[in-house]
Amino acid sequence: MSIQILNLILFSLVRVIDSQTTQNINVLLINEENNALAEKSFDVAKEYVRRNPSLGLAVDPVIVVGNRSDAKAFLENVCRKYNDMLSAKKTPHVVLDFTMTGVGSETIKSFTAALGLPTISGSFGQAGDLRQWRNLNTNQTKFLLQVMPPADILPEAIRAIVTKQDITNAAIIFDEFFVMDHKYKSLLQNIPTRHVITPVKSFNKDEIKTQLRSLRELDIVNFFVVGSLKTIKNVLDAADENQYFGRKTAWFALSLDKGDISCGCKDATIVYQRPTPDATSRDRLGKIKTTYSMNGEPEITAAFYFDLSLRTFLAVKSLLDSGKWPNDMKYITCDDYDGKNTPNRTLDLKTAFHEVKETPTYAPVFIPEDDPMNGRSYMEFSTDLSAVTVKDGASIGSKALGTWKAGLSNPLSLTDPENMSDYSAQLVYRIVTVEQQPFIIRDDAAPKGFKGYCIDLIEEIRQIVKFDYEITLSPDGNFGTMDENGNWNGIIKELMEKRADIGLTSLSVMAERENVVDFTVPYYDLVGITIMMKLPRNPTSLFKFLTVLENDVWLSILGAYFFTSLLMWVFDKWSPYSYQNNREKYKDDEEKREFTLKECLWFCMTSLTPQGGGEAPKNLSGRLLAATWWLFGFI
């Protein structure tokens, strides 16, 4: 009897102690209809708390599930459940918002901000993407918190790959497990990459083939498939039937699933990226999955919602235990809210959430120290990057390429950076030409089947710009002319209809052609006829000035000089009017010049210089001869 009394006393003491240390936490869980995995993980977290009394927690949840597209009905349902909690004196300590995106999710953000309810959200969106939480004040940023789910962070790896591979065009295809609405602008912002982000439009192979063809027609050669392994297989199978594998295209697959990719491809290599749990968390993950049946897939997503729920419980308990939870928390109903009476909170849920010491189940949560959490907090998981080779529908090998740590701007960590370039689409231009010697000459022995001046030119450009090319002849053998209906043929037609990227030939630049295609700066100007010859090398000589005139001309000048000088001497010697025959007549002249043979030679010589020959002969015949010599020298 005494033993029974003693056991009863001990049991009562245990209950008293338990009642003193266990914190009852009221949780309002708001979720979407298509996010059942989050609710299952929440149930696992609640069961984990129940089975571990040392945590000192008791969770009492109220769950609301709504449709993201019917915001009005969703909000009415949430308000009804919330008002019922207030009526039952079970005011929610915290709201767990597991909505993903869309109008319904924004409605919940507006609801929690308006009523001042401490909230932990797992919605998609980076800084500024949650419109209803975009302009929170300092106090609100401490209790209206968001942690981005793994499906919101994994696509950021595309930015790292594009940057590393220097990719200039990309198609990003995703399925319903990923939300990309807010990434159309931000994912590859400030990166010179022409890209298209589009959802997989169907699971029907023919429709996927059509979708891929439309993307390929945009000259896209780099494809990123973001989704489940099933989606990846469907897209790869469609690409194989379209013959989109080879050196001209590159394929990248990103998935949260933990399995290996598979497809019925004949010959394909795909760069595959998937998450792996941290080494310090693997044992805990296995224990949680085994003991508490957390078997949802993807396991990283299940672990995220489990950790988010458990961490929230522990953060609220920490505030309650430390006395930092306000005793006078004011709550108003949805009907009482008038747009101006939002309760003022001084609750620092962010610090408490950050300081939780519980071991993560998959990977730690990154929380910025100084900046607000919203749009900047996420599970900091790691991913493995590998190249998977598939032949005849079977995977024949996988080569590890490196890792990537989840983050908003983290680069790839590669084992061999140079090796990564082997998995990029080669830049291969389609060249169309017309045979015309010496510019384009058909030669089966040449590497590309052609030789000539144009081939030499494109080869030099290829070495500088780093690209490859395929060259074909114009189907009709024409350069390109326009008929009376405005239709083109030849090379111009091939370029206009995008069957070729470059026209390589001796094509004349015309105004009509410039209206439809772009020309380079002309490399060959066919105006007139130009003859090229070797430049002669003339020997140097002191008498090179004599080469100005031919030898016959020089002899003629010399002959004229001596003949004129002699004739002038004859005229002066025998003319009755010359000075030497009329000395008395000219004795008073200031200049007296007797034209001897020597003086005649000097006169004719100096007459050819700028200073002139001096006094001319006195006789008329001598003057006429001097004038004739002057005219000869002038000419």
TrEMBL record:
Residues 428-605 form the Ionotropic glutamate receptor C-terminal domain. Belongs to the glutamate-gated ion channel (TC 1.A.10.1) family. Pfam families: Lig_chan, Lig_chan-Glu_bd. The lineage of its organism: Eukaryota, Metazoa, Ecdysozoa, Arthropoda, Hexapoda. One of its GO terms (cellular component) is membrane. One of its GO terms (molecular function) is ligand-gated monoatomic ion channel activity. CDD domains: PBP1_iGluR_AMPA_Like. It is found in: Membrane. Residues 1-19 form the signal peptide. This is Ionotropic receptor. It comes from Semiothisa cinerearia. It is a multi-pass membrane protein. The chain crosses the membrane at residues 553-571. Keywords: Glycoprotein, Ion channel, Ion transport, Ligand-gated ion channel, Membrane, Receptor, Signal, Transmembrane, Transmembrane helix, Transport. Residues 438-497 form the Ionotropic glutamate receptor L-glutamate and glycine-binding domain. Gene3D superfamilies: 1.10.287.70, 3.40.50.2300, Periplasmic binding protein-like II. Coiled coil: none annotated. Its main location: membrane. It comes from the Eukaryota.
